[in-house]
Amino acid sequence: MQARILPAPIPADSEIKRRLPGADFHDCYTLPLADTRSPLQLYLHMLPRMPRWVSLMMALRNKVVGHMGLKNLGDFAHFDASRPLTDYRVGDQVGIFSIVYLSEREIILGDDDKHLNVQLSLHRPEGCDTLSASTIVHIHNWLGHLYMFFVTPMHKLIVPAVLRRV
């Protein structure tokens, strides 16, 4: 039986919760997860297991937004799978995002562009067998609002689909 992935509040004890003020979009999904992998390990585990349709959507996104002057984020699988976990640091690019915060309990990954800043968190609360995946977006201009108009419905499908692969 597959674990239930449910919408939830952003965890109060997470670093990403402190970044929430002023966000134009935010959400969080949780799932029961009894193993002991760190958020970094879980993120690295998910990247090569990205659903094919999500990778195709990212390729389409990169093609379309390039005509609007936004950056190409590349693809999720762009990382060195043989790199030791202890070598990862804040600022490292891993897949389409850079690490902006890293601890034993949480990893925050993000991307900043002229239209918006996005950050996503994988968080394992102390003493709790769950994983929380939170996203916050700070929009800078009308292009960011237009972008999120199209991305928001897809985001609500993508996050649970990716979490099912943990």
Q: Which terms would index this structure?
A:
single chain; about 170 residues; alpha+beta; seven-stranded antiparallel beta sheet; 4 helices; about 30% helix; about 25% strand
What does this structure look like?
This protein has four helices and seven strands; from the N terminus they run βαβααβββββα. With 166 residues, the chain is of the alpha+beta class. It has one domain (6-163). It has a seven-stranded antiparallel beta sheet. The relative contact order is 0.23. The model has no long low-confidence stretch (mean pLDDT 87).
Layout of helices and strands, plus pairs?
Elements: E1 6-7, H1 15-18, E2 25-32, H2 39-46, H3 52-66, E3 93-94, E4 97-102, E5 106-112, E6 116-123, E7 130-139, H4 142-163
Antiparallel strand pairs: 1-2, 2-7, 3-4, 4-5, 5-6, 6-7
The mean pLDDT is 87
| Whole-angstrom Rg | 15 Å
Helix content: 25-40%
Secondary-structure element order, N to C: EHEHHEEEEEH
Principal-axis shape: globular
DSSP helix count? 4
Strand order of the largest sheet: 1-2-7-6-5-4-3
* Weakly predicted, low-confidence segments: none
Structural classification: alpha+beta
Approximately what portion of the residues adopt beta-strand conformation? 25-35%
Summed up, the domain count is 1
Cα separation of the termini: 14 Å
Largest sheet: 7 strands, antiparallel
